[in-house]
Each structure stands twice: as C-alpha cells, then as structure tokens.
C-alpha cells in the first residue's frame, strides 16, 4: 500500500466542492457514530451557521483523494468555543490525524480570542479522552445520559490565559 499524504483544509461555504465534501463527511459520520449521535441529517444546516467551521483532513492517494477525518467547531459566544465533532476514519487512526485536526481547530478557535474551548466525549472512547487530555483538556463534569439514557459524557474544557 502506497503511503498517503494529506493536508488539512477548511471547508469554505462558497467552495465548488462543498456538496461532495459534505457528502463524504456525512458517510463517515454515519459509519463512526451511533444514529442518535450523528449529525448526518443536519450536517449541511449546522455548517451554514455563521459561527461554525469545519476542517477536514484530505488524504492524497495514488488513485485520488478522500476525507480521512474532520473536526467541527463553533463559537457560540465571544467567551468560549466548542468542538462539536472530531472523527477519523477507522483505517486512518493512530497516524496523527486526530492530533493534527485538534491542533488546527484549537488554533482556529484561538483566533476568536475565546477564553475556553469545551467539548463532550464518551468516557468509554478512551483514545479520544486521552487525546484531549494530552492537549490539556480537563474533565469538568460527568453528564449522565448525555448521549442516551445509558451513555454518559465527560464535559471537558481547555482554558486560555486572559492576557
């Protein structure tokens, strides 16, 4: 298998490949997340909101390119931003894509001068929890029944100095 190379791309609202990229991301979303957790049905709508953004990892192959992972974020207020989704395709995990996407999303959020970034994660998704902790996110709270009646979430946050 030839080594893949990739780049992180910001999805632009007026991009000619918007529909194609969103379609690829929705397919990934459906594979990775349980139905009730998936934004697949409302993805396009979510992305059209003024205060949201999406970065995706575009992997180049010998036979074309594909979306290997993505991160969606928003800044509901001037004080904080939120990482609403971070996902990497099964076959692309453990290659640093999640780290690269998280780094890029944090940088994007920082440009808004927010003081805090929050996110929710299933405590049983250990690799995800460990990734966030590696970046300095701290567990704030365990929210019972966040995803469904039998699935909780950690609310995690990363604070920045108000300098």
From TrEMBL:
UniProt xrefs under InterPro entries: Acyl_CoA_acyltransferase, GNAT_dom
Top-rank lineage group of the source organism: Eukaryota
A Pfam family reported for this protein in Swiss-Prot or TrEMBL: Acetyltransf_1
CDD domains in the record: NAT_SF (cd04301)
Residue ranges constituting the N-acetyltransferase domain according to the UniProt record: 9-161
One Gene Ontology MF term: acyltransferase activity, transferring groups other than amino-acyl groups
PANTHER family xrefs: ACYL-COA N-ACYLTRANSFERASES (NAT) SUPERFAMILY PROTEIN
Protein name as it appears in the record: N-acetyltransferase domain-containing protein
């Amino acid at each position: 298998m030839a080594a893949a190379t990739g780049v992180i791309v910001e999805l632009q609202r007026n991009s000619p490949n918007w529909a194609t990229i969103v379609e690829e991301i929705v397919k990934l979303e459906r594979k990775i997340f349980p139905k009730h957790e998936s934004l697949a049905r409302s993805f396009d709508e979510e992305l059209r909101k003024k205060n949201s953004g999406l970065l995706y990892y575009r992997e180049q192959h010998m036979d074309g390119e594909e979306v290997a992972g993505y991160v969606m974020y928003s800044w509901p207020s001037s004080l904080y931003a939120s990482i609403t989704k971070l996902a990497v395709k099964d076959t692309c995990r453990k290659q640093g894509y999640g780290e690269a996407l998280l780094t890029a999303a944090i940088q994007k959020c920082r440009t808004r001068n927010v003081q805090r970034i929050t996110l929710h994660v299933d405590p049983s998704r250990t690799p995800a929890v460990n990734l966030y902790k590696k970046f300095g996110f701290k567990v704030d709270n365990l929210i019972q029944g966040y995803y469904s009646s039998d699935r909780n979430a950690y609310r995690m946050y990363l604070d920045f100095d108000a300098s």
